[in-house]
Amino acid sequence: MNPQQVEETQESWPLHAPVIEYEICDEKCAGWGSDTDSGSEGKNDRQSSEYKERAGIARKAKLKKEESQIFAGVVAACPDRTLTASDRKVEVSRMLVKLKNSPTNAESMESALEASCGATEQVVSESIIEDIKVTKWTSSPENACLVCASRSSEAVTSNTTITNSTAPEAESSIKLMEKMARQERDLKSAKTQAGSLRAEIEVLNQKHRLEMQKQMDRLNESHRKEVDAMKLDLKEAQVARQKALTDLRRVKENNLNIGTDRKELNSKLEAVNGDAARFKNNILALKEQSNHALQSAESFSKLVEDLTRKARATEPRLDAEQANTSATLLQQNSKLLDENRKLKQQQSQSTATSSHRLKQLQKKYNSLASTYHNVVAHRDKLRVGLTRYQRQCQVWEDEAEYYNTSRDYRRAELDEVAKELTKMTAKYVKAVYNCNWEQQNYEKLKRTYDIVEPLVKIEADIRLRFLDQAREAVFDISRDETGAALRANGNAAAHKGNAAADAALFKGNFVPEDYEEEAEEIFEHLYNQKFSEYPRWTGVPGRQNDCEATLSTITKSSVSATLREEWRVVWNRIAGGSDNKRMVLLEELKEITDDIVDLERSNRRRR
Question: Which segments of the protein form a coiled coil according to its record (predicted)?
Answer without folding.
Answer: 173-289
